[in-house]
């Protein structure tokens, strides 16, 4: 019987193999044989861990977005534990999102691509895990409104989705078209956007 630790390590290898192959050539063109070969395991090992290629990809999405959600939550909690405001927590989550995308670019490309598809078997799973990530941002936004840091007029669900989307798309654009820029540089630009200073207007907090 494969130990849980060893099985988790095997699954991680399969996730990494699948995400790179699918990013390179698409889901339909990627075979279980190729995934097994890239992961350095037998084909039977793939089916031992996942019932099918679709199940593997569904679990890959769940795993990847779970990692992103945890990193966002940890960043917000750390910022607040250090005495930061709710807006500081949002800024910390922007940085955490950029760090995640810098670490897992192939996964991020797949995730963004799958958001636009409507005919996938894992569409409902994707919706659930996406909402888990967005809910972390919603929680901090709601706290910022309750504390008076942000206006009560803010549409919290849409603003949370917009912040997550901003980080995803800006990071992919950074990596594809502006790779010479540092993570600190990209974060600084998005931080200004968060603070509402892009057009020289007052910050979201209402402070000068």
UniProtKB/TrEMBL annotation:
Q: Please give the DNA-binding region boundaries.
A: 31-50
PROSITE patterns from the xrefs?
HTH_TETR_2
Q: Which domain of life is it from?
A: Bacteria
* Keyword annotations of the record: DNA-binding, Transcription, Transcription regulation
Q: Which InterPro entries match?
A: Homeodomain-like_sf, HTH-type_TetR-like_transc_reg, HTH_TetR, Tet_transcr_reg_TetR-rel_C_sf
Which residue numbers delimit the HTH tetR-type domain?
8-68
Protein's UniProt name: TetR/AcrR family transcriptional regulator
